[in-house]
Structure of Long-chain acyl-CoA synthetase:
Amino acid sequence: MPVAAQVMRHAAAHPDRIAVSGPGGDLGYAELAARAGRAARRLADEGIGPGALVAAGQADPVALLVAVLAADLAGATPLLCDHAWSEERRAQVMAAVPVAARFDAPLPEADGPPVRHRPGPDDLTWACFSSGSTGRPRAVVRDRASWTASFAHLDALTGIGPDDVVLIPGPLVSSLYGFAAVHTLAAGATAVVPGRWSPGGLADQLRRATVVHVVPHRLPAVLDALEKTGGPLRTAVVGGAALDAATRTRAAAAGVRVVSYYGATELSFVAVDADGAGLRPFPGVEIDVRVPSGQALGEVWVRSPWLCEGYLAGATGPLRRDDGGWMTVGDLAEPHRPGEVLRLRGRGDGAIQTGGATVVPEDVEEVLRKVPGVDDVVVVGTPHPYLGAVVTAVVEGTGASRAALEATARAELDPAQRPRRWYAAGSLPRTPTGKPARGLVAARLAAGDDPGLRRLG
């Protein structure tokens, strides 16, 4: 990953086949390859080549894919950035990572001899930000093999092939949707990339889509649209939070097979449920749930070829590794033995799984503490029927209004990080060391009868 070499092969064999369908229309494989080649030539002319980190923040998803492929041809590493960031936010993130160049508009193109970097499995070919880059910019970087070598397994599980039209209805800066797009191009299929979730556009998109990649809480809307318009949709690939059995049953009644999986930006695929019988290790993955003595749950540790290289620029985050090649991001599960179903039970570090995103509470708290009138704040996840959980903030102090808090959240946090529920407390419960007791706050919210908490209107 990325997949410039595969795109070039498809362009030679099937030049007129539609590669991508974006907001501006369709682009065939030959033209996609030509645009990527000319952009790679421009990068090379500017001295950007192997080992360079190129920040790509194009709003147009097709232009973003061209930039990713051009960087791959030049041997550089694309770093996908959110085009919706404010300039202040963008500057903060860029200051934290060693980028050689930044492009927010479509990459300039140049004529000249083709640029060809000989791709290797250990090339660093993809970097993107995990959910929550404010205050702690945290970019995950991957080598080529950590994703491309998994493509054949996903093909076998989903049946995706060159005749498919794959709908990818979300921002490609998300690793889930970015992976879906490049996997589709590697397969020689057609990637439909609107760039964002658009319920109003689903009807047209589903008239030709045979496969959709989506997060769990979006699947019901896809099925609603399918019931109204019909279409050839046969498979839904669902990643992120747990998928409820009722939605899977409904999909089956509509003739749509669901392949759901659990993973993380850092870990890629961990476990997959291809038949509704429960999550089992994805091919090539070893799972070790490490349960401390006397505890009911343990951390999920993973060893596989699909793991990331780590965070750029020495950033810290939930990813940990041991000397045996195992990694964890702190997810919790019931005790697990080989051959058994993996039963996940949330995050042990307080991270919030909301829809398809993972939100680190400390990142949100760091921003909200800057709001005048906030003495302290605790962020937790509270249950939601479709998203799994929503970000919920409990503010200590009496001087901050909800309007001021929401204005700061809109200005400095990604959409997934912004609290949906707000509470105020005269004083937060604290641990013996003086830190806010996050677990106790979550328990009081769950109980719903704590007079010390009031909803902010």
Q: What stands out?
A: Residues 4-333 form a domain with the Rossmann fold fold (CATH 3.40.50.12780).
